């Protein structure tokens, strides 16, 4: 979960171009599609115990290693693929996390085969928009009733590594909630940035 202080104009990321780009154009912007949401769930799980910047720096390597995060492709991975991934210095080489990514790809495919989708399941837990933006990170929760409910439903669907805190971080990243701190620079749909205020909460 991201909790950096706001030293200049951003909630987090100032001074690191890759992090600034992520803050300005991705974090809190709505994400749809099973592959895109599957990618975010995997990366949030991979981030556990590490900095998010580490994950961003390895993101292209993750995409190459996991077939662009196409769930059907990853769901077909076998033991040889696990060993290949554990030998790949460009990603996070943690057996539990790698196995979780494969398990979750199979869970996405199972949802699809049952006539559902990860997109539908995920977005069904979006809370009502905030009345106003948080004034500081102390007002941003680590988890919420919605992230707890999302975790329960994902686990019921055979997903793993999807605890309430990890899922709240995914909800923030994928735009189900907007936790940009009051006064920071936030994305606009035109591709620029604007200063956040209570009046433009999404």
Summarize the structure.
By secondary structure, the chain is mainly alpha-helical. It has helices spanning 17-25, 34-47, 52-65, 71-75, 79-86, 95-113, 118-123, 145-156, 164-173, and strands spanning 185-187, 193-195.
Q: What features would you describe in this structure?
A:
The chain is mainly α and 202 residues long. It has a single domain (17-200), classed as Endonuclease III, domain 1 (Orthogonal Bundle). The chain is 48% helix and 3% strand. The protein contains nine helices and two strands. The chain has a two-stranded antiparallel sheet with strand order 1-2. A hairpin with a 5-residue loop joins strand 1 and strand 2.
Report the portion of residues in β strands.
under 5%
The main sheet comes to: 2 strands, antiparallel
* Quaternary structure annotation: single chain
What is the architecture at the second tier of CATH? Orthogonal Bundle
Query: If you average the pLDDT, what whole number results?
Result: 89
Number of domains: 1
| Helical content band | 40-55%
Shape: globular
Q: Output the strand order for the largest sheet.
A: 1-2
CATH topology: Endonuclease III, domain 1
Number of helices: 9
Rg estimate, integer Å: 17 Å
| Low confidence ranges | 189-202
Number of extended strands: 2
Descriptive labels:
202 residues; mainly alpha; Endonuclease III, domain 1; two-stranded antiparallel sheet; disordered C terminus
